[in-house]
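To the team - iron/sulfur cluster complex, inputs and output below.
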Amino acid sequence: MERGELARRVFEAGVVGAGGAGFPTHVKLAAEGIDTYLINGAECEPLLTVDQHLMEAEAPRLVRAAASVAEALGATRAVFGLKKKYRRQIDALRAAGGEVAEVGNTYPAGDEVILIQEVLGRTVPEGGLPLLVGAVVNNPETLLNVAEALEGRPVTHTYVTLGGAVASRGVWRVPVGTDGAELLAAAGGVTEDDPAYIEGGPMTGKYRFDPHFPVTKATKGLLVVPRTSALVRYETLDVERMLNQARVACCQCVQCTLACSRNLVGYDLEPHRIMRLLAYGPMGLPEVAKQAFLCSECNLCSGLHACPMQLSPRRVNQVLKARMREAGIRPDFPRREIEPRREQPYRQVPSHRLVQRLGLERYEGPSPFRGDLRPSGDLTVLLKQHAGVPAVPCVAPGQVLEAGALLGSPPEGALGARVHAPLGGQVVRVTPEAVILRPAAAGQEG
Ligand code: SF4
Ligand code: SF4
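Output:
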């Protein structure tokens, strides 16, 4: 298959990165000059197990799909990057004929800049994309959705880890648009009296106090933790209060920079300097503030791991990035030779130590696949579940749709992704943000 045909089918199926910001996959797959298709199976966020499940259960399909994608890209190599400890998954992928590169059991091994450096020995330029070093990177769930797209099926479901303080932990296959509270009910309910909810992993996920939110194509996990935990305090602190704390409490001890995963890669990112700028200079001085664009938001610099003053340079970077984007400042950096820091091998954070530090050991353990979740309520299918602009809806209230019917497409030429009906049913409402769909009773959908 030609690269253009691959990108077209993936666009039509609405495939986006299954996790993170949901970058539209067809854009990545249209890249030229690629020699390696790298499947990011490092899954390094504590408690998340979706990709581990898929790499074991769907190994032959993933290996075949990876070979097809590599061929279409003109790449000479399709390689899966996994942590050494994922033995069953490594064995399954190898038994299916896949090439596997083993990386350390550290956090954040799944940062694609770090994975590319470990597996390929190449460093993505500052502010650049993996394609600049000849690589396209997808995670296993995204690859599975590409495989579905090649067989003509759009993205209608996502795999979600339900973990933390729930009665039955595990992985469910969930229709996009399902309410988070339905997921918790499927997991037997919450076992914590005063809970908070994390959509995604504890280090980089979205923290919520309300479980009612629509699952998107990028939802990888729903974790329940005590509202009183340090994790929740850091991630939900009011931004202005957090900035004020940062101004008065940073003692310039440099611990955040020593721990910074992107600094260890060799990037010119020194969170302690950004914190100093915040304390003594006006927000937005570009020469130091621009470093914030290099931040992966891995969270190792914060009091969860490094900062003795319980600050969060990561959240400062988030604010800076948003303000610079609003001001039209772009993440462009002069090209230079980048070498990993000599101390990088000794400063990586073992995954098990991070779990202990976060107080999450009690939630570790088996996370079996529990099957398909059938929601009882309406689905709220967001028109923007991805990086770029929202899809423009093409359905109207009252319309009866089959599963997989097109709900909306991005405007011609704009960065975005299509969205489809996760189940057969009737359109209840269409808003600028979402299509609300009432699923037909089981067995009656098209
Ligand atoms: S670790 Fe904390 S106190 Fe030390 S320089 Fe960084 S932000 Fe400041
Ligand atoms: S979150 Fe902190 S440690 Fe991670 S890349 Fe950003 S500045 Fe570095």
